[in-house]
Design the sequence.
């Protein structure tokens, strides 16, 4: 009799778990359908075409309105995608767990990795095969505002003002800063203070970066270059996909950056923090990044097309903040500069290709 009762209890428990699993599967499927539809709607907004009769001032206003519509649609799609992933994880756990059908999913996805003080094993997100560098397309814009915009708040410095409008053509930018592995493939030696194949190369001057690019182009047959300051900021903000956030990819610095509060006072492997809206890593924190331009004050005169900075100067600009900096230095509009021969363990760079 005891055996029969035990079997009955087991069957009842299994039936309960089966019902719970089925309900979780149905919930996950429903949320996945909603997420897929939200993505389709976001894609449709991105494909909307400006009315043929809309020119001049109308075009500027339409572009600005369209940017906001895209940002809202992408934000909603991301929200629904996250809800779907949580539901799918819950369904998976319900199916595999013998008991505890009420187990709650994690509060947020994805879960951030712990702070690394040594380079993790097998961490490379995009292994370099020869000189095949992971590049991301940045679609241009006919109306982009750079500098001290509203979300930067009271942290803006004088050299970030005035906020001003530019237009940009399409370009490709490297997914991560140049790694030590790539640098050694081209240059042979490694000048970095903190050694590791998948760490960003640092302790390189603007002049060193130019020499590297010259050799890389000769070896690869391509025409890499440093980004202009405008290209760098546009990419860091997420391009036309921008959600208008303070840092590159988030208003939460820990989510996207290695900085003085989590870096262990050293560089960390590239792409170990959340990428921005375009899938670009480490544009806030880890290492400052040299750009092509001479550093100069901004001008509010006119709508500039593909600005490349002044023709001459004393200091070259760099952007993004580093492993030893706080939040105000890792903002997307923050500017830094140094002489072209300056080197620091906080300074590296990334690459651009014209489309």
Sequence:
């Amino acid at each position: 009799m005891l055996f029969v009762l035990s079997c009955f209890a087991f069957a009842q428990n299994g039936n309960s778990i089966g019902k719970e699993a089925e309900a979780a599967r149905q919930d996950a499927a429903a949320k996945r359908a909603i997420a897929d539809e939200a993505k389709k709607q976001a894609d449709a907004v991105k494909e909307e075409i400006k009315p043929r009769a809309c020119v001049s001032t109308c075009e500027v206003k339409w572009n600005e309105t369209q940017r906001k519509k895209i940002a809202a649609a992408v934000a909603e799609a991301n929200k629904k995608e996250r809800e779907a992933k949580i539901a799918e994880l819950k369904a998976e756990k319900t199916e595999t767990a013998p008991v505890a059908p009420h187990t709650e999913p994690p509060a947020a996805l994805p879960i951030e990795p712990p702070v690394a003080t040594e380079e993790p094993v097998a961490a490379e997100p995009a292994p370099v095969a020869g000189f095949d560098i992971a590049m991301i397309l940045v679609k241009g814009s006919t109306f982009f505002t750079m500098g001290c915009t509203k979300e930067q708040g009271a942290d803006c410095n004088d050299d970030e003002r005035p906020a001003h409008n530019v237009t940009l053509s399409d370009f490709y930018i490297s997914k991560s800063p140049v790694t030590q592995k790539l640098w050694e493939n081209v240059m042979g030696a490694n000048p970095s203070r903190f050694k590791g194949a998948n760490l960003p190369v640092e302790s390189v001057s603007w002049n060193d970066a130019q020499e590297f690019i010259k050799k890389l182009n000769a070896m690869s047959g391509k025409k890499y270059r440093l980004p202009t300051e405008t290209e760098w900021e546009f990419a860091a903000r997420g391009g036309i996909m921008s959600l208008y956030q303070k840092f590159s990819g988030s208003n939460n610095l820990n989510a996207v950056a290695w900085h003085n509060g989590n870096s262990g006072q050293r560089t960390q492997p590239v792409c170990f923090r959340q990428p921005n809206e375009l899938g670009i890593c480490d544009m806030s924190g880890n290492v400052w990044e040299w750009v092509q331009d001479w550093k100069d004050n901004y001008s509010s005169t006119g709508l500039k097309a593909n600005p490349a900075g002044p023709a001459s100067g004393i200091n070259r600009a760099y952007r993004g903040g580093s492993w030893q900096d706080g939040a105000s230095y890792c903002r997307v509009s923050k500017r830094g500069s140094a002489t072209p021969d300056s080197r620091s363990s906080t300074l590296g760079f990334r690459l651009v290709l014209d489309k």
Q: What stands out?
A: Strands lie at 135-138, 141-146, 164-168, 171-174, 288-294, 304-305, 316-319, 335-338, 347-349, 352-354. The longest helix spans residues 2-46. Helices lie at 2-46, 57-96, 180-187, 206-220, 229-236, 253-256. Residues 2-96 form one domain.
